[in-house]
Amino acid sequence: MNCNFDTTRIHSGYQAGDHFDSATPVIYPSVAYWLESFERGNQISEGKIPGFSYARVSNPTTGFLEKRLSAIDGAAEAVGVGSGMAAFTYTMLNLAEGGGKIIAPYDLYGGSFDSLRTLLPQFGITTTFVEDINDLQHIESLIDQDTKAIFTETVSNPNTYVADLPALSDLAHRHGIPLVVDNTLPTPYLIQPLKHGADIVFYSATKGLSGQGNAIGGLVTSGDQFNWANGKFPQFTTPEFILSEAAGGKPVSFWEAYGSLAFIKRVRMKYLRLMGAVLSPVNAYFQLMGIETISERVGKQSSSAKKIAAYLSTNPQVTRVNYQGLPGSPQADLIRRLLPKGVGGVLSFDLQGGREQVAKVINQVKLFKYLVNIGDSRSLIVDPISTTHRELTPEVRQLLGITGSTIRLSIGLEDPQDLIADLDQAIKASALPA
Ligand SMILES: *Cc1c(COP(=O)(O)O)cnc(C)c1O
User: What number does the ligand 1 atom closest to the CA of 157 have?
Assistant: First the structure.
């Protein structure tokens, strides 16, 4: 049955009747799975029939999550991994291993930025960073025959800058490269990037997807439109020993075996299997539970964040509010098209009293918790330059306007009026003498 989002997030990926009628998804801790007979064992190993063999490659509980996320994200297939950074790393390596260029904005999660800038170059993968991911002309001028992907976050953290996914995907596809998106902030509830032209999407499931700050994890999802055999990605067209020769057959490539699913199959069969950042089935269970309430949580967080941003923009101590979801935002048209339900629960603002006042506000708030997570049921506060964004170089911080005066908030599920009152008392108490 083809259902809408709110139904799919509850019912997809798991059938109680197949698991002793357990209403909630079952946690399968087993490391290895009974192959039963010589014949069945061989067929499972060759991928000829569905089945599990060893939990580094796949696990039933993680499988429920992969199916449920695929369903709500409009994906052909998903792979669960141990963290959002594992999802990022496997995606980038699978795209550009052995050498290649990525085009990405500076405006990225600190870990992704640090990896693209300092670690992935050690593996032959270099990144050209751009100031504005929506500057299509500039991006087009940077694409050459070594370029393997355009990569962006849908909604950036902490500036909430929205990427024009349909325009970027048209541009990427004209040059035979995929659009790769980190959709952690908005989650599939606010936007499903594959439906707007993205080819590969990944998530930190640690954040809004599971939503209670209790289970680290990540997921990579794929559509089924991109042509991985267009000559730019030899890793998908090279014959692969494990796919057939191991069983005595004729050598085939990931593309020959799986067509447009070559990318996502290879994430599992090469990267997850050989590099091993496995998602624990217990964490997959927490994430499945979280997804069952995603609409109510992310919807409320987004609407509360809008109220809080509106309050902050009237506070005389606040010199700037970064929340593209406010009416009159320069991105209002784009947001109406791509994110009609809102831009999410993360926002940032600057205080006129600089770092000194930031420190006082952080020590003065009563409800906001000082910790480096987002998308939690609790409201959270951080100073990005000393925590989540310390990887940004001073020049990049300046470019993005993330300074010592900046505070980032992740809005939780409390009453927004209580949150406004908390911020208001903290900002008043921290005001420096005029
Ligand atoms: C947190 C985060 C990540 C990394 O996820 P982990 O689960 O912490 O590894 C990647 N991208 C974004 C946008 C994030 O917020």
Answer: 13
